[in-house]
Specification:
This protein is of the alpha/beta class. The chain is built from five helices and ten strands, in the order αββββαββαβαβββα.
Length: 197
């Protein structure tokens, strides 16, 4: 048993706490972290479960690598599939860090969600992404582990529609904004206030 998908509200709460540098959130405790070449992830534990939170872009170097939309800006992964080059580079760091660890679920926001799509589907870890960009080059089949990935997106948030022509890994769940068009902004608070369907 590879665990189950993290609930939407808990994912938003843990991501928000992680961005703020907190170490406790609704019964979950921070136990370890990775910060390597601008790539950040943390491990959280509660009641015998361990989850991984991957945060989004937080500096100009991140943006310069993961928001490139040029044709051909892709790289081949170990599966033979092609992914967005910048996001795959970060994913390889997280993959190496998590491989062999007993991880029950993953969640991530923005760039972190893009990473979760690749790593979660590769390691068969249930992964719930929030506001994640598309990472898989078009006209390719979904990875075998795509059934482990679910992507929450809001209308009006431009990031989940990037990179043009690419595709998300796994299922896409469109959330319902609670405050009209402005509910579609990219921040975790807007996703936390949205209604799941």
């Amino acid at each position: 048993d590879r665990g189950s998908m993290i609930p939407h509200a808990l994912a938003c709460a843990l991501i928000t706490t992680d961005y703020a540098g907190g170490h406790e959130c609704t019964g979950w405790q921070w136990i370890d972290g990775l910060n390597l070449d601008g790539c950040q992830a943390t491990l959280w534990a509660s009641r015998g479960q361990t989850g991984c939170v991957v945060t989004g872009s937080n500096d100009g170097w991140d943006w310069s690598r993961n928001l490139v939309f040029l044709p051909g800006y892709s790289m081949q992964g170990a599966s033979g599939r092609f992914y967005h080059r910048g996001i795959l580079a970060y994913s390889r760091q997280i993959y190496s860090w998590l491989k062999g660890k007993p991880i029950d679920w993953m969640t991530g926001h923005s760039l972190g969600g893009g990473i979760c799509q690749i790593v979660g589907s590769s390691l068969l870890i249930p992964s719930y992404t929030i506001a994640a960009p598309k990472v898989l080059v078009p006209f390719q089949s979904q990875p075998d582990g795509a059934t482990f990935v679910r992507n929450a997106i809001l209308p009006g948030d431009p990031v989940p529609w990037l990179v043009p022509g690419y595709q998300h890994i796994g299922a896409v769940c469109k959330l319902v904004p609670t405050s009209g068009w402005f509910g579609g902004r990219h921040g975790v608070a807007h996703y936390g206030a949205a209604e799941t369907t």
